[in-house]
Amino acid sequence: MPARTPVKLTKRAVDALSVVSGDTVVWDRDLPGFGVRVHASGRKAWCVQARMPRGGPKRVALGAFGDLTPDEARRKAAEVIDRIRQGLEPLPAPPAPEPTVADLAERYMEAHVRVNCRPGTVETFGRVVRLYIVPELGGLKLSEVDRSHVSALHHAMRDKPSQANATVMVLAKMFRLAEAWGMTPPRRNPCRSVRRYKETPRERFLTAEEYRRL
How many beta carbons lie within 10 A of that of residue 101, not counting itself? Predict the structure, then answer.
C-alpha cells in the first residue's frame, strides 16, 4: 500500500482515516516519527518511530486511539522519540511497588536475624514477627504505618505486657533497618514515643541477650 501523505493528526483527521484491507501508518505532519496505525477493522493505535544512536529505526506502540487524546499521544511521542535517540528504553520501567511490612519482615529475618543471632533468638524473633507483626500489619505499605497502628497493636496485647513490649521493640528495629536499607525516609519510625508497659524480670518475653541483639 503506498505511503500516505503526512497530515496534522487531530481527532477529526484520525476519525476520518480508514483502509480497505490490512493496515497502514499515517504519520504526523508536525512531529516526525509520530503516527497512527489504521487497521481495516477500524482499530487505530498511536505509534512512534525513531532511529537509535547505533542501529536501525525502532517502532513503539503508544496506546489506542481513544485511550489517548491526540495531544496526550503527541506529548508521549515526543518523550519516547527523544529517549530512543538517546539510546534509552523507549518507555521507562514502571516504579517498583512500595514494600509492605511483610516484605520488611522477611528481609529483617533473612538479612539481619538469621545472620546475627543464635538459633534460639532466631526462633524467638521469628515468632514475634509471625504471630503478631505480620498478621496485624503485614499488608500495610511502609509509608502507611504510623504511630496509631503500633499503639493499637501494643494495646491489643496489653494482657501480655512483656510480649507487647517485645513486639514493639522488634518492629522498631525493623523500621530502623528499613531506614538503613533505603526502604523508608530518615527518621520515619512509627514506633517512636509508644510507651512500653511495666514488666518484671520474671515476665520478660526476651532474654537480656535478645534485647541486646535487637
Answer: 25
Q: How many residues belong to the chain?
A: 214
| Residue 161 phi, psi (nearest 5) | -55, -40
Q: How far is CA 22 from the centre of its chain?
A: 39
Task: Spell out the per-residue pLDDT of the chain, length 214, in tens.
Answer: 556 789 999 999 999 999 999 999 999 999 999 999 999 999 999 999 999 998 889 999 999 999 999 999 999 999 999 999 999 988 877 788 999 999 999 999 999 999 999 999 999 999 999 999 999 999 999 999 999 999 999 999 999 999 999 999 999 999 999 999 999 999 889 999 899 998 866 555 555 555 555 5
Instruction: Supply the pTM of this predicted model.
Output: 0.59
What gap in Å lies between CA 78 and CA 63, rounded to an integer?
14
Question: Domains along the chain?
Answer: 11-85 (3.30.160.390), 101-213 (1.10.150.130)
73-81 long-range contacts (CB < 8 A, ≥24 apart) are 73/9, 73/34, 73/36, 73/46, 74/9, 74/28, 74/31, 74/34, 76/46, 77/28, 77/31, 77/33, 77/34, 77/46, 77/48, 78/31, 78/34, 80/48, 80/50, 81/31, 81/33, 81/34, 81/48, 81/50
Per DSSP (E only), the strands in the chain are 23-27, 34-39, 44-51, 57-64
Distance CA 44, CA 193 (A): 58
